[in-house]
UniProtKB/TrEMBL annotation:
Its EC number is 4.1.1.50. The lineage of its organism: Bacteria, Bacillati, Actinomycetota, Actinomycetes, Actinomycetales. The keyword S-adenosyl-L-methionine applies. GO terms for cellular component: cytosol. Coiled coil: none annotated. It comes from Actinomyces weissii. Gene3D superfamilies: S-adenosylmethionine decarboxylase (3.60.90.10). GO terms for biological process: spermidine biosynthetic process. This is Adenosylmethionine decarboxylase. Keywords: Autocatalytic cleavage, Decarboxylase, Lyase, Polyamine biosynthesis, Pyruvate, S-adenosyl-L-methionine, Schiff base, Spermidine biosynthesis, Zymogen. One of its GO terms (molecular function) is adenosylmethionine decarboxylase activity. Its cofactor is pyruvate. Pfam families: AdoMet_dc (PF02675).
């Protein structure tokens, strides 16, 4: 088990565009773009819309998962990307850029490595 490497990237998005945060198609496309951009392999996907607004979407990856939960009424979202391998600085920067380009706002990022 000593060779196991798990990385989790946590992005907290603030002051994002509420309409974008409530657009399921845009958010699902964003998750797919993230997976593709950092070389991850999508196995399955699902999402759920909340009433009156907000959504959660998840991609199951061969390497683990990526998930997002949005709160348009707060102009915010949380996105987590967990992989069974390291995420380098370039991958982190790419994910941050994709998220802010799609949803606006500013992002705070934390990375946990196990």
């Amino acid at each position: 088990m000593s060779n196991l490497s798990v990385s989790t990237l946590v992005l907290h998005l603030e002051q994002a565009d509420p309409a974008s945060l409530d657009d399921a198609e845009l958010v699902e496309r964003l998750l797919l773009e993230i997976a593709q951009a950092v070389g991850l392999h999508v196995v399955a996907s699902t999402s759920h819309r909340f009433t009156p607004q907000g959504l959660s979407a998840v991609l199951l990856l061969a390497e683990s998962h990526v998930a997002v939960h949005t709160w348009p009424e707060e102009a915010g979202a949380y996105l987590t990307l967990t992989t069974c391998g390291p995420l380098g600085a370039e991958a982190v920067s790419t994910v941050e850029s994709l998220v802010t380009a799609a949803l606006g706002g500013r992002v705070r990022t934390e990375q946990v490595r196990l």
